[in-house]
From TrEMBL:
Pfam families to which the protein is assigned, alphabetical: Arginosuc_syn_C, Arginosuc_synth
Pathway: Amino-acid biosynthesis; L-arginine biosynthesis; L-arginine from L-ornithine and carbamoyl phosphate: step 2/3
Organism: Saccharomonospora marina XMU15
Keyword field: Amino-acid biosynthesis, Arginine biosynthesis, ATP-binding, Cytoplasm, Ligase, Nucleotide-binding
Residues given in the record as L-aspartate binding sites: 122, 126-127
Name of encoding gene: argG
Residue ranges annotated for the Arginosuccinate synthase C-terminal domain, each copy included: 177-394
Enzyme class: ligase
Name of this chain's protein: Argininosuccinate synthase
Length: 403
């Protein structure tokens, strides 16, 4: 089979839905299926086990890509430098991973001569948009197939299909939650969480310890940044991936990065989500504070607007959009002086900054101090205040004149 229409590249997780999709796509379309699994630091099953399962389920080829470093350097790092928190809280755990998976799917489609890319997303979530808009941006000639969404696949149908064909997957194992995770964090939804009054049970959490139960002595550390890039922890050099992994462990031990929120999905519905992102939250907290020390006021104010828009674009599946690319240039330029050390204490669910130092600091002790050595000329302030408030004063007089 050499025709492009004879092959379908499937985003493969190793779970029930995508395992069933291999055989179903082959039967319904007559095409060969190439399964693509991407390691983003999610843990769980060994990728070789997943690769073999894809072949046993009928894939003609199975590709596994170790993209952990790529994910950290080219996706998590830009999010860190943008202090990206959707709705001021969510550090874009799933949203960051989708464009990278899309990139590998498109590369596989080109390499294997496939004319179609398939995914296992439902019609209710954001991921269908992220996959399909991303594929359209990188390879507009590719078709997209979404069996779960477009053909109303239910879990019951998938189980029956797997049992009928003796697929090598445990159909009895079912989590009460829908879970997506990678090195940047973990997202949990559905089940009892769909009732907004229900508190998250302890089994929801995996990346973090409950600080009220598992008491840990405070953990003090120093994170070193060079132009917005975390390059060392406690003086020891780290890659971006190592920084995230180490802080996942250390901040996770103190229950940092737990989020329980009602989120505005792109498709127009509100959804209750529970997130764990200890490394992401600790790094963003440190990075924000170093920017407070090293970035000039007007640039900092405008950057906060850019950060919100950047996070919305990525959440909405527009990673490859022209606006996102332009904002990347702004964020990159803003990192020029973001170098120095941040000391943090991890304890009781909170990452608290306790110290800052930087050769690029804009903080001037002699201007800030109220003690002896003050170089700030307070006599200049009277005229400044009068001129600054003049427009408001004139407007107020106009109102008074009208009674």
């Amino acid at each position: 089979m050499n025709s492009k229409t004879d092959r379908v590249v499937l985003a493969y997780s190793g779970g029930l839905d995508t395992s069933v999709a291999i055989g179903w796509i082959a039967e319904e379309t007559g095409a060969e299926v190439v399964a693509v699994a991407v390691d983003l630091g999610q843990g769980g099953e060994d990728l070789e086990t997943i690769r073999k399962r894809a072949l046993e389920c009928g894939a003609v080829e199975a590709v596994v890509a170790d993209a952990r470093e790529e994910f950290a350097d080219e996706y998590c790092l830009p999010a860190l430098q943008a202090n990206a928190l959707y709705m001021d809280r969510y550090p874009l755990v799933s949203a960051l991973s989708r464009p990278l998976i899309v990139k590998h799917l498109v590369e596989a489609a080109k390499y294997h001569g496939a004319g179609t890319v398939a995914h296992g997303c439902t019609g209710k979530g954001n991921d269908q948009v992220r996959f399909e808009v991303g594929i359209g941006a990188l390879a507009p000639d590719l078709d997209v197939l979404a069996p779960v969404r477009d053909f109303a696949w239910t879990r019951e149908k998938a189980i029956a299909y797997a049992e009928d064909r003796s697929l090598p997957i445990d159909v009895t194992k079912k989590s009460p939650f829908s879970i997506d995770q990678n090195v940047w964090g973990r997202a949990v939804e559905t089940g009892i969480l769909e009732d907004l009054w229900n508190a998250p049970p302890k089994e929801v959490y995996s990346y973090t310890q409950d600080p009220t139960v598992h008491f840990q002595a405070p953990d003090e550390l120093v994170i070193t940044f060079d132009k917005g890039v975390p390059v060392a922890i406690d003086g020891k050099r780290v890659t971006v991936l190592e920084a995230i992994q180490q802080l996942n462990r250390r901040a996770g031990a103190h229950g940092i990065g737990r989020l329980d929120m009602v989120e505005d999905r792109l498709v127009g519905i509100k959804s209750r989500e529970v997130y764990e992102a200890p490394g992401a939250i600790a790094l963003i907290t440190a990075h924000q504070e170093l920017e407070n020390v090293t970035i000039e006021r007007d640039l900092a104010r405008f950057k906060r607007q850019v950060e919100q828009r950047w996070g919305e674009l990525v959440y909405d599946g527009l990673w490859f959009s022209p606006l996102k690319e332009a904002l990347d240039g702004f964020v990159g330029k803003a990192q020029e002086h973001v170098s120095g050390d941040i000391r943090m204490v991890l304890h009781g669910g909170t990452a608290t900054v306790t110290g800052r130092r930087s050769q690029e600091s804009l903080y001037d002790f002699n201007l800030a101090t109220y003690d002896e050595g003050d170089t700030f000329d307070q006599s200049l302030a009277k005229g400044f205040v009068q001129l600054w408030g003049l427009p408001s004063k004139i407007a107020a007089k106009r109102q008074q004149s009208k009674g």
